[in-house]
Amino acid sequence: MNIVIFTQEGTSSYTEMLSGANEEFNIINTKFEEIKNYKKYTPGVIIIDAPIAKVKDVCAITKFETSVLIITDNIEPFTLRADSFDFIKSPINQYEFTTRVCALAKTSYYHFHLQKSSITDELTGLYNRKYLHHRLEAEMSRAKRYGTSLSCLLIDIDFFKTVNDMYGYDWGDVLLKKIAQMLEALIRKEDVLTRYGDEEFILILPNTTEDNAFIFAERFRHDIEKMEFIPANEDERHPITISGGISSYPFLENVEENSNTVIRYAEHALYAAKKRGKNQIVEFSKMNLEY
Q: Domain segments of the chain: what residues?
């Protein structure tokens, strides 16, 4: 965990005080002026040692998405917005100092993991539907602002119920995790992969046209056709295929499209792929809407 110390000089004796307090601490010293860019240090705890007037000015305009410890010789009330915070008076008692830093670090740790568990799927470790809509709305706003393309790919495992019925739900879980891992290995850093339903996955693909999303989806569909899925006590691989539906944003002019709209387009395209015989990818813009 990064413990970032902001001081006037950019150096401090607090590093030495914290050495040995927790072997997982990575202590970073930097100048107070850098506090506006604190996120780039991915801090678990921020320690601020600067004149109280400067600290007040920063805290008035900044909401810290982490824990904060302020060192001051004059504790007085002012607005401080952070996940958790504490004050300690100087001169510093080393035991009290390390105890408070460790307490804030523990709070940050639990806050992070609680937040993460609320937006991730327990089985696959992917993002869940709750996170999907939040992130898709954000990416759509970005696409609208910069005039870029955004695609949404909905993938469904064909005949997944057959796998569960033939081999049991444990092997169905193995298959889900395997496909999730294969998708994670293919996507870019900016792509967002979520588990959407029991055997469904959705990818948000920023800066990607529908046709380019189709190329990606076809590549993955062929990879799945060749994958080795051999349940226990079986001599041969069980053939696995997927179907997919792709939508893009923006699609219709003069229509207020939101995350639900884009996902619904992808669902229509997936339904068309299923109706046409499965093991194929359908682009919403090129499908016959009777499906």
A: 2-118, 129-286
The residue among 147, 146, 227, 130 whose CA lies nearest residue 185 is 227
Q: Which residues are catalytic?
A: 199
Please give the model's pTM, rounded to 2 decimal places: 0.71
Name the stretches of the chain with pLDDT < 50.
290-291
CATH superfamily of 129-286: Reverse transcriptase/Diguanylate cyclase domain (3.30.70.270)
pLDDT of residue 289: 52
The pairing of strands 150-157 and 200-206 is antiparallel
Contacts of 282 (CB under 8 A, 6+ apart): 243, 244, 245, 246, 269, 270, 272, 273, 276
CATH for the stretch 2-118: 3.40.50.2300
Tell me the per-residue pLDDT of 237-258, one tens digit each, with 9 for 90 and over.
999 999 999 999 988 777 788 9
